Amino acid sequence: MPHVATADPLPLPTWPPTSPAIVDSIRQAAESGDWGKYAAQASRSLADRLASRFDVEHVRLCASGTAAVELALRAVQVRPDSEVILAGYDYPGNIRAIEAVGAKPVIVDTEPGRWVIDADLVEQAIGESTTAILASHLYGDLFDAKRLRELADQRGIALVEDACQVHGASLAGKPAGSWGHVGVLSFGASKLMTSGCGGALLSSDDRIAQRATLAAERPSGIAPLSGLQAAALLPQLATLDEWNAQRRTAVARLKQLLAGSRIWQFAEAMPYESETTYFKAAWFLSAGIPRDSVIAAGLAAGIPLGTGFNGFLRRARRRYRTVGDLSQSEICIDRSVVMDHRVLLADLDVIDTIAERLLAIERDLESKADA
């Protein structure tokens, strides 16, 4: 394992944030009794503000981002024996949501040097049974939502846009989450806005919204977000731009300080107009670098590193169809390293220290290779 001398612990921000505004909002909901209603005022306010922020007509609050993905698939009429296209590297809950509605996943590769679905391969994968594309923005890397929406419209299928990690990002001037026929947000414990768990379905299609309502209400909601959770989220929506600016500044600083690195490789630049935000900082390790050893060295140096998603390419192939080579997805699975989301809200002197320690890990690896 690379050796990095144990240093002083890094002063990382707490998460969820210790914000007086969040405490006050929850207290107000509790003291007013609003929290105990089926349709709490806080929930209605949150839905209205999300609709305005994401420029959509309809918002349905859900118990989780995963529940919102499954509901979205039902709302766009994904049925048993139909097919849904997704990338070979994605959040595992997405493939399970496809299977939960009885559909068959069709897996295509990611773009080279990136964590997002390859739009060229999506076009090749569309067949007679294709009902939808389920595509995710990951680690601040935004897929080409404009192109996939145009493709979906041309072929008469639905685009389900997973924007769970990128609240506040935009592509070609439109909010991420609003490009799909239906978009999905997550308010899970580590997301850019959190209520511990929770999510939202976004759409401007009246028919999709109606189907989501029919699927989710029996007659009370089967997986709602509570009024107290909504109360916790409202102040975070108000500060989202400020937090996202800090996250972008932190990643820009890391890119600057690690520009000469031979092992810490950021994703390739997005070749279209965008303003992203970051759930976690992420890298591809260079080929041949022992990822487990690098992560262990990072943890020993006080840097909260981990692997990305394990992927689902090693599951029984009878459960899904693949199109083309999946070598880029394998790279994402085997060589991705991510850093805990809290780091990106730390002061810049902490970011500088982290960069120094990451480079120290690299130097130690090189010295061992030369020995």
From TrEMBL:
EC number: 2.6.1.50
Active-site residues, record numbering mapped to chain: 191
Pfam families according to UniProt: DegT_DnrJ_EryC1
Group of enzyme by EC: transferase
GO terms for MF: glutamine-scyllo-inositol transaminase activity; pyridoxal phosphate binding
Single GO biological process annotation from the record: polysaccharide biosynthetic process
InterPro entries assigned to the protein according to its UniProt record, in alphabetical order: DegT/StrS_aminotransferase, PyrdxlP-dep_Trfase, PyrdxlP-dep_Trfase_major, PyrdxlP-dep_Trfase_small
Transmembrane segments: 294-313
Glycoprotein found in the keyword field: no
Ranges in coiled-coil conformation: none
Annotated positions of the N6-(pyridoxal phosphate)lysine modification: 191
Alphabetized Gene3D superfamilies for the sequence: Aspartate Aminotransferase, domain 1, Type I PLP-dependent aspartate aminotransferase-like (Major domain)
The entry's keywords: Aminotransferase, Membrane, Pyridoxal phosphate, Transferase, Transmembrane, Transmembrane helix
Listed PANTHER family: 3-OXO-GLUCOSE-6-PHOSPHATE:GLUTAMATE AMINOTRANSFERASE, TRANSAMINASE
Stated family: Belongs to the DegT/DnrJ/EryC1 family.
The name this protein goes by in its record: L-glutamine:scyllo-inosose aminotransferase
UniProt organism field: Rosistilla oblonga
